């Protein structure tokens, strides 16, 4: 199942990514000033999967990617894919698992496993 991952960019804005069952990024959202805006847009995206428009492109180096449009506004851009088939599989994963995807928040910057590292240092 896919997962939405909220994180912070280097400029202190927030973003979310949809990652596949294998942990690969499918797409990355636009930037948000506040974390809750990410959560709101994820919910909006999940509620409107049938209204999403996927605009497919080919970059100058021959890689394929898509932009996700909702209500005539770009909300995300995909990673680069080597083939059109892989690009389509990314879109299919959104359609199939997007409404089931859980949300993980890694934006706090705190250590996820602090006890493990403390034990290793001792």
Automatic annotation (TrEMBL):
Cross-referenced InterPro entries: YegP-like_sf (IPR036913)
Stored SUPFAM superfamilies: YegP-like
Protein name: DUF1508 domain-containing protein
Natural source organism: Flavobacterium sediminilitoris
């Amino acid at each position: 199942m896919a997962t939405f991952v909220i994180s912070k960019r280097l400029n202190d804005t927030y973003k979310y990514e949809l990652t596949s069952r294998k942990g690969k990024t499918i797409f990355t959202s636009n930037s948000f000033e506040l974390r809750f805006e990410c959560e709101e847009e994820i919910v909006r995206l999940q509620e409107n999967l049938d209204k999403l428009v996927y605009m497919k492109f080919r970059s100058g180096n021959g890689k394929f990617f898509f932009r996700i449009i909702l209500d005539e506004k770009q909300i995300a851009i995909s990673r680069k894919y080597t083939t059109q088939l892989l690009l389509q599989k990314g879109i299919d994963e959104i359609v199939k698992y997007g409404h089931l995807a859980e949300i993980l928040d890694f934006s706090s910057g705190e250590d996820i496993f602090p006890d493990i590292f403390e034990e290793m240092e001792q």
